[in-house]
Amino acid sequence: MSRWSSKELTRRSRFVDLDIPRRKYGNTPTKVDGILLDSALEAKRYAELVLLQKARKIACLRVHNRWPLFVGQVQLGYYESDFDYLEGDKPVIEDCKGVATALYRWKAKHLAAQYGIEITEIRA
User: Fold this and answer.
1) Is residue 113's pLDDT more than 90?
2) How many domains does the chain have?
3) How far apart are alpha carbons 58 and 113 in whole angstroms?
4) What pLDDT, on a 0 to 100 scale, did the predictor assign at position 76?
5) DSSP 95
6) Residue 7 domain-assigned?
7) Which of 7, 51, 82, 115 is buried most, with the most CB atoms less than 10 Å from its CB?
8) 14 or 6, which is more confident?
């Protein structure tokens, strides 16, 4: 008797070529332009942002940029944005979300307080 069902084996085999284990929230890591993105939603949004940058609607697109989070002079950690870019002269931070965890919500509030930038959530 097999340890896993054929359905589980099929689901697990999707990650063999990326050498990534199955994810906690069921997202499928996707590689686009040599960049490993955390989900299909993130890959779709990345493609849209690249087109917007080519059309010069946005500038300075960055993927998985780390924003340090401080209290006074002490760095508590960091927030890693899915995307950030400039829209005109206004900075925009985007996060593609399927599940908004408590830690994410805390970091989003901390980032808004520290940098004055609200995170734009892209929902599944």
Assistant:
1) yes
2) 1
3) 24
4) 92
5) E
6) no
7) 82
8) 6
